[in-house]
Design goal:
The chain has about 220 residues and is α+β, with helices and mostly antiparallel strands. It has 2 domains: about 50 residues; about 150 residues, Glucose Permease (Domain IIA) (Distorted Sandwich). Helix content is about 20%, strand content about 35%. The strands form 3 sheets. An 8-stranded antiparallel β-sheet has the order 9-5-6-7-11-3-2-13. A 3-stranded antiparallel β-sheet has the order 1-14-12, with no helix packed on it. Strands 4-10-8 form a 3-stranded antiparallel β-sheet, with no helix packed on it. A hairpin with a 3-residue loop joins strand 6 and strand 7. Helix 1 runs antiparallel to helix 2. The longest helix is centred in the first third of the chain and has 24 residues. The chain is elongated. The mean pLDDT is about 90.
Length: about 220
């Protein structure tokens, strides 16, 4: 049976979860024999343990298998659907879809479609609120370009740190092959993921700002 916790959080679960568990048990024992008021502290430590396990959860997803689909790379809320000029990697007009992940969302990231990892670039930067427009261009980020996507196109997926996020995990290398919906990393605490798909690919977005999406499962759009 698969434990529904992400491998990308093993260290944090063992460290912070272990501390919270030990503190929960210790304060509960002390409260039972010496100071009942410490049951409050025990409950708070138990809640902290619950949050650690909840944050690093990694539920299974049903990835759609119909051809030409692009699925969400992250759980969260769509905050932008627009047409922009991507100037750094693709260098062409693109459909941009930005997804904001709150601290309560699943933070494991998944490949939006099948493709070969062509580029991975880490960009140091600021830590603006991930829901803001400034976050996309100024925050710390890891950019991944997938090549040989439907019809030979290239797309860009960018993991963007947020106000509280201080660690981006991208667990693939250039040359790796990713399947649609395959896990490839995570961002720890509130953050966002931006997706850029070339206009000339005929990609048609199905979502609008305000829509809630699930990584690897929600269809963001389809190639023509």
């Amino acid at each position: 049976m698969r434990i529904p916790l992400t491998k990308y959080g093993t260290g944090q679960v063992l460290l912070y979860g272990g501390i919270a568990l030990a503190a929960t048990v210790l304060t509960a024992v002390v409260a039972a024999y010496l100071a009942p008021v410490l049951f409050i502290a025990s409950a708070l430590f138990a809640a902290a343990l619950g949050f650690v396990l909840y944050f690093f959860r990694d539920p299974s997803r049903r990835v759609p298998d119909a051809p030409g689909l692009v699925v969400s790379p992250a759980d969260g809320r769509v905050v932008e659907v627009s047409e922009v000029q991507e100037t750094d990697f693709l260098r062409e007009r693109c459909r941009k879809i930005a997804i904001f992940m709150s601290p309560t969302d699943v933070h494991v990231n998944r490949a939006p479609c099948q493709g070969k990892v062509e580029v991975i670039v880490h960009r140091p930067g600021a830590f603006h609120n991930a829901a803001s427009d400034a976050a996309s261009g100024e925050n710390e980020a890891v950019t991944m370009v997938l090549a040989d996507v439907h019809g030979g196109h290239r797309i860009l997926v960018r993991q963007v740190a947020g106000f509280m996020a201080r660690r981006i995990v991208c667990d693939v290398r250039e040359g790796s092959l990713l399947a649609r919906g395959e896990r490839y990393g995570m961002i720890k605490l509130g953050s966002r993921v931006d997706l850029f798909v070339p206009v000339e690919s005929g990609f048609e977005p199905y979502v609008q700002p305000g829509h809630t999406v699930r990584g690897g499962e929600t269809v963001l759009g389809r190639f023509a």
